[in-house]
Amino acid sequence: MSNTPLTIHSIEQLLAQAHAMKCESDDRLHDLEHSLREHHNAKAAAVFLQIRAWLKHSINDIEQRASAMTLPVIPPWDAQWSCAEPADCACMEQAHYLMSPQQALKLTLYNEQRFAVFFDHQSQQGATPAIRQTAKELLTQDKKLMAQIQALQDKFDPDDDCKQDDFDPPNTPE
Amino acid sequence: MSISSFSIAITGAGGSGAVTTGLILLESMAHYGFYGLLNRSSGPQIRGGESAVFIRFDDQEVLSVNNHFDYLLALDWFNIERFIDEIPLGQSSVVIYDSNAGAIPEVLQKSQAQFMPIDFKTLVKTIHKGRANMIGLGLLANTISLPFASIETSLNKILGRKGAEVINTSAQAIRLGMTTQQEAVSWPVRSLATHIEANKARWSITGNEACGLGALKAGVRFVAAYPITPATEILEWLSPRLEKLGGGLLQAEDELASINMIIGASFGGVASLTATSGPGLSLMLEGIGLAIASETPVVVVNVSRGGPSTGIPTKSEQSDLNIALYGCHGDAPHLVLAPLNIADAVNTTFWATGLAEQLQTVAIVLCDQFIGQSRAIIDQVVVPQWETSRVTEKKEHPQNDYQRYKITENAVSPMSIPGTPNCLFTADGLEHNSKGTPSSMSQDHIEQLKKRQDKLLKFDYGTQWAKISGSGTMVLITWGSSSAMVQEAAHTLKQDIKVIALRLLMPLPVEALVKELRNSKKVFVIEQNQGQQLFHYLHSYQSLPVDAHSFARSGPLPLRPAEIVAFIKEQL
Amino acid sequence: MTLPIKPKAYKSEIKPVWCPGCGHFSVLSALTKALAYLQIPKHKIGFISGIGCSSRIPAYVNSYGFHGIHGRGLAMASGLKAARPDLHVIVAGGDGDGFSIGGNHFIHACRRNMDMLYIVMDNQVYGMTKGQASPTTDPDWVNKLTPHGSQLRPFEPLGIALASGASFIARGFSGDPSAMSKLLVEAMEHPGFSFVQVLSPCKTFRPEQVQWKQQVHTAFAESTDDPILAAQRIHGDDGMGTGIVYQNQLPVWSLPHDTHEDTDIDAIEAEFLL
After folding, report:
1. What confidence category does residue A73 fall into, taking pLDDT thresholds of 50, 70 and 90?
2. What is the DSSP secondary-structure string of B536-566?
3. A-C C-beta contacts closer than 8 Å
4. Which residues of A touch C6 (CB under 8 A)?
5. Do B367 and B302 touch, CB atoms closer than 8 A?
């Protein structure tokens, strides 16, 4: 994983990276959605479910573009998935079983913002015009997704940001 | 026991070679056509300590100890107090001792036996590197009319590793002993008459080896274990032989590892076993519970020592019944079997392994030090054609609907072996549903508890559950190594007595037992432990009449037929 | 994207009950990616664990698994691997399971250097039992069971692994799952006992571990096969350094097989004949 955007040499490589990133995001949202459901936080789970549905369009689009191509296999550690940033980033570990929909949305927005950074960079620095064009199109999609997330954020109380207290003590299941 | 039965004890310390003498004697008598049962006793030193060997001979299989020894060959008097309880002597007994060894010890002075001093020191000097124990052996051989020819083969077998010179010197010494003048005593044994069929296949084998053989024959190919007295020989015997058969033995760091390793190997589809004694069995209990709960077949051979705790590691006792039955926390039904004697250890261990595999559970084989570390001459054992394989799931389940713990007619569910595609499951010690997913639901717990119990109770164990001999309204119930002594006591009493020697202790065949006791008027439960463990166990199933008697004596001394007879007579 | 087995295929249909935000999710994710990268057939994997939050992982992976008893995962895995050397054996557990009750088995598993992967998800706490100190907890972490803290120097798994003979020793961090995937691939490709300690914060009982993100750093950019250098690395380690500390080709133990003799059981039985 790296914070330094790597140089993309082909459309195939771009699409492979994009696909890997989006699928990774989907996997994590899937984990969060189910985990929150297991912990009876239906509201936050619903948020992740919704984001996943929107993300699916993005993934389908990439797969459509790549249908006639053979994409390179990206090892997981070469995927452009930056995470280890300072504390103010909303990373997966920030999820909490009492998290509010607002916090869930913040988390997913952060992921999308990082995709946008990647696509933005490639739309300007990509090796060929085709790469730059495709990256630009993917960036547009991302921005659309981010707008959708932000719109959803408006639906929830902006102060709904604090964790509720759980008065019950923890359990010992085993 | 026939009238040709007699017993010899040989004692000596630090390098006197008492044990070697005993082994040669046993082997020689076997070649001459006799059967024998040899066990030994020693001091706490690793080497050079006091040593004793006890052998009983007969022209039929010897299973029991005698009531007294006919001969004691004392190569010296060092610490004989340690063994004296184990060597009851009578008026007809002869004590052959070294006249240079000092005064006869006080413990023996009260004995009514005949004493014969031999000047071993002088005799030994006449042979270069001659040894007193070989002279003593020759002397004994002469008194019981054992021909030198029979001894010669044994010398090569037992002393072979020491080289030709040692063999020759020993042969010389034996011949010298055979021709040594003796004082006139009344010898207990005049002559040996052998009635053994020529070319009958017979074995020289220890109980520990017999357990190992039974396991190998039943398909055990993986052992993980930690050395512990008196079980280590099972492991040492199995190790190279497992390898020869394509399996192997892994020496574990402790018993906690041992039990978990065999569970892992069994999970992988390989029949697996470990062997231990009381302290090790205590450590293994949690793992045994895991095997039971996850329905993973394993065999645990426990060679009982004197308990509790470290106890008396080199002596026998039947005090591990309780832990074998009740040791696991929770309701954890499993199998507990106990061989009756050395020959029976082959079949019982075989049977236990087959049952564990078929029923996907734990089989604890309760052996004891008396059986485990004794050597006997027995008729070759032929193992019956019992089923040994586990029911495996080979059908693929592409819909991921394989139910590892599904409830079936006989409560045994087919087990898929790792490497089988589309049949995946995760075994668990946690209670689970039929698919194996952990569950704390009452329905699942009730169902799975019932499954694990039903599979044992619904199984038809046939007639192996006990050895029943004789008939009569007096019934003697026993188990393990005590069986032989009880059998001999019954014979001595010359009455109509039924002896029930249990092999299957858990699940207890209550119905069959109650049926055997239906017309009984006097019932005795005889065992070698202080806590009356079998007696209480049988009572807990209301399988004994209210006035049944308990003869329960702890180790370290073996039960003797005479004391059982005395007890029974007292109650009549 | 035409991998025959996708990472998702290695996840079972059972949903993890770990707390949302638990580091173990990333470990599961990284592991499935590593397995997919190596294309290991699901039915050839034996996934063994002990007891604890970390030890729940075998049920969440589509493979053969065994959720065993506390501290004994390595022993069970050793038995499985010895009897079935054809299987890919993975062991997982936590810091309590592995370094307290499992400590003895850890040492001997390193010694044997059998070909398997051992992942310890270290969150420096006993999570399952509601928050007691574990062997890797700092000495002054106050809790109900030891109100003064453990007052003991933390267990050093990397050092003990090295001294005991492990041939692959590494540390990862659940907050860097990509690097962890790579680590796990290398660990699984390594012939011998691969020990990977993964710092995996406990959301519920050690919420302050969220700070690990700033403290974790790549300490061992390249592995070394020099045990002295490895020892120096461990000595200078602040407990937060990731990478492969040590990797060496050492003798791998498996059950010896007697290839000389073609023996059958009848020959063994015949040994008893007089």
Report:
1. confident
2. HHHHHTT-S-TT-EEEE--SSSPP-HHHHHH
3. 110
4. none
5. yes
pLDDT, chain A, mean: 85
Higher pLDDT, A170 or B536: B536
- Binary contact (C46, B267; C-beta < 8 A): yes
Confidence of residue B446 (pLDDT cuts 50, 70, 90): very high
pLDDT tens column, B209-239: 999 999 999 999 999 999 999 999 999 999 9
Residues of B in contact with C103 (CB under 8 A): none
Residues of C in contact with B396 (CB under 8 A): none
pLDDT of res. C262: 67
With a threshold of 0.90, tell me whether the complex ipTM lies above it: yes
**Same fold flag, B6-179 and B204-379:** no
CB contact under 8 A, B257 and C80: no
Q: For the domain B6-179, what is the CATH code? A: 3.40.920.10
Q: Which of B203, B243, B290 sits opposite C68 (nearest CB)?
A: B290
C77 at interface of A, judged by CB pairs closer than 8 A: no
pLDDT computed for residue A34 by the predictor: 93
| A35 vs C: CB within 8 A | yes
* Contacts with B122 (C-beta within 8 Å, 6 or more apart), sequence order: none
Q: What is the C-alpha separation between B250 and C255, in angstroms, rounded? A: 7
Task: Residue C52: list chain A partners with CB under 8 A.
Answer: 174
> Is the confidence at residue A86, as pLDDT, over 60?
no
Residue ranges of domains in chain C, CATH in brackets = 7-270 (3.40.50.970)
Range picked from B10-19, B330-339, C9-18 for highest mean pLDDT:
B330-339
Q: Are B377 and B59 in contact (CB under 8 A)?
A: no
Report the top-level CATH class of B466-571. alpha beta
CATH of domain A11-70+95-155: 1.20.1260.10
Question: In chain B, what are the domain boundaries?
Answer: 6-179, 204-379, 391-459, 466-571
The two structure tokens encoding residue C219: 């300490």
Query: Residues C200, C121: contact at Cβ < 8 Å?
Result: yes
Name the one residue in this structure whose structure tokens are 């939050």: C53
